[in-house]
Design brief:
single chain, about 300 residues, mainly alpha, Alpha-lytic protease prodomain-like, Alpha-Beta Plaits, 2 domains, 3-stranded mixed β-sheet, about 10% strand, elongated
Length: about 300
């Protein structure tokens, strides 16, 4: 099995795990709501339905993004992951709005919260399951550079924090008899959910607009190119972008006029190999130019290296 095929298989299994967890957690939280009558637990359960929808979308998107490049899509289909992230951000936002609506209605018409140890215990169990699965998805998303899986992991982990707030509100409402605390905590959950949705949307839009790689990755690329500074005169117009799991790097390389084509080719191959070792899976394009096009003043001497 190729590295790409193995990665696709692992991502598919992660998506299946996310879907199974979403269905299980939704069932557990819904049972907790029926046992306690807490609007906070209901809002928490409603938010979990988005997890299920997002996991289904994640499975479909990962399957599509794993398709190899073709004539219509010569750079592959990896950017489809950003569409999944964007859609998940929208779904999270919709869940936040639904929670606001439910909480406001309950705030206007307070309802006593039942002190059900079983109902609260089920919510704790759901949070533990989400925490374990969310951390696992986050680790795999980082290792495989999958924006869709990372977005799903953020969503699952946000569910953990929102559930913690809901439990706090239920316990305080039971202890004090202040039934309005439950919907107020529900509103706090909604704000948290909306914040996570915005972060997911922001990341997806950044990927679709071809944002540059993080500065630490760019610095590593510059250092890798500089290790070959004896072979070239100047480097400029370094550009980077990420498309899902794929990384694209291109720049202009100034070489000595009259250099044999074979030697220029070997220099480019050596630099490409170094860059691919620095950022595995990177797609590197090098545009060779003669020394007359150098940005610095040559005059027979080697100019300073420019990585801009």
């Amino acid at each position: 099995m190729t590295s790409s095929a193995a990665t696709s298989t692992l991502l598919g299994r992660a998506a299946q795990l996310s879907l199974a967890t979403g269905v299980l957690v939704f069932g557990i939280k819904l049972a907790g709501y029926f046992l306690t009558g807490s609007v906070g637990l209901l809002s928490d359960a409603l938010e979990s339905t988005v997890n299920v929808a997002a996991a289904l979308l994640l499975m479909l998107t990962l399957r599509f993004s794993a398709r190899p490049a073709d004539q219509e899509h010569p750079y592959g289909h990896a950017k489809a992951e950003y569409l999944s992230s964007f859609s998940e951000g929208l779904l999270i936002g919709i869940a936040g709005v639904l929670i606001v609506q439910t909480s406001v209605l309950r705030l206007l018409h307070p309802h006593p919260v039942a002190a059900s140890a079983l109902g609260l215990g089920l919510t704790v169990l759901a949070s533990v399951i989400n925490l374990v699965v969310g951390l696992h998805l986050s680790r795999q998303g980082r290792e495989m550079h999958s924006p869709a899986l990372l977005a799903d992991a953020q969503h699952v982990l946000s569910d953990v924090w929102s559930s913690g707030l809901v439990l706090l509100g239920v316990l305080l409402a039971i202890a004090t008899g202040w039934n309005w605390l439950d919907p107020v905590i529900g509103l706090a959950v909604a704000l948290l959910v909306l914040r996570v949705g915005w972060r997911v949307l922001r990341g997806a839009v950044g990927g679709l607009l071809d944002e540059a790689l993080p500065q630490e990755d760019i610095t590593r690329l510059e250092q890798a190119i500089s290790r070959h500074r004896e072979s070239y005169l100047e480097v400029h117009d370094l550009r980077t972008r990420r498309a899902g799991r794929d990384i694209f790097v291109d720049f202009h390389l100034i070489l000595t006029s009259g250099m044999p084509l074979k030697q220029a080719h070997d220099i480019c191959d050596a630099i490409e190999d170094d860059l691919k070792s620095t950022l595995p899976g990177a797609n590197v394009t090098i545009h060779i130019e003669p020394e007359q096009l150098a940005h610095g003043q040559v005059h027979g001497a080697r100019p300073d290296v420019r990585l801009n």
